[in-house]
Amino acid sequence: MLEEDLNTGIPIIDTRSLVDKVEFYLIDLFIRKKLNPGDTIPKELELANSLKVSRTVIRESLNRLKTMGLIESIKHKGTVIKSPALPEILQKTLIPNILDQSTLKDIFEMRLVIEVGMADLIVSRATDKDIEELYEIIRHEVSPSRETLFDIDHEVRFHGKLYAITGNQTLSGFQQLLLPVFNYAYSSGLIHRDAGNKHFFSHKDLVDVLKKRDAEQFSQAMRMHLENHYSRLFSMDTELS
């Protein structure tokens, strides 16, 4: 089927494979039929006859949707719509050794933005027990002082607890996707760059502020905690521009 470029009026040739087209058609079909998680979709033969394509094409298209987490096969019921777990979908493609440095840098920036932005959730949902556990994590750090710029094990443990405190399962799952950025900070040489400010908010400083139950103060504290990372990124941007 030809589509027309609105800017030039020149027809655009659809070069997608047949499997690609069927895959997108099926997604559109599920949306138009207003299918919800748990609803059964038509059988392979029915879809093949309706679309006038082979069952092999239908099967491959459905397998793609299964890989994406959009559908699943249930014994004695058939294939049903599934609510996809977004972190799991991204996890399948977020492979550090394959992603280029620019993409890893983008992910690192996302981590900084997310952690500053989730201050309200942390403050509103942190229990006294959560705060005690954060202090326990800090107690095992080699040096929880303001001079400790970065330690991968401490970062993963401490910030992982912060994500858990939010109570947001998708956000907690997303934290697992951010783990490659910790290795990126080392492998790219980013963490060895001069950040300029050797004194910043440590993990202990963050927990001390969290105890005050003030979301705005905690957000500012998180920003100060990550200040050196921001400084390194901005200095890298300046060099690349």
Share in β-strands = 5-15%
- Share of helical residues: 55-70%
Rg on CA atoms, Å: 24 Å
Number of helices: 12
CATH A-level architecture of the largest domain: Up-down Bundle
Given the C-alpha coordinates, what overall shape results?
elongated
Strand adjacency order, main sheet: 1-2
CATH superfamily of the largest domain: GntR ligand-binding domain-like
Which CATH top level class of the largest domain fits? Mainly Alpha
Largest sheet descriptor? 2 strands, antiparallel
| CATH fold topology of the largest domain | Four Helix Bundle (Hemerythrin (Met), subunit A)
User: What structural class results from the helix and strand content?
Assistant: mainly alpha
Arithmetic mean of pLDDT: 79
What low-confidence regions span 5 or more consecutive residues with pLDDT below 50?
1-6, 144-148
Distance between the termini: 42 Å
Give the total of beta strands: 4
- Tally of structural domains: 2
SSE series: EEHHHEEHHHHHHHHH
Tell me what the structure shows.
There is one protein chain. This protein is mainly α. A two-stranded antiparallel sheet has the order 1-2. Strands 3-4 form a two-stranded antiparallel ribbon. It contains 12 helices and 4 strands; from the N terminus they run ββαααββααααααααα. It starts with a strand and ends with a helix. 60% of the residues lie in helices and 6% in strands. The chain folds into 2 domains: 2-84, Arc Repressor Mutant, subunit A; 89-240, GntR ligand-binding domain-like (Four Helix Bundle (Hemerythrin (Met), subunit A)), CATH 1.20.120.
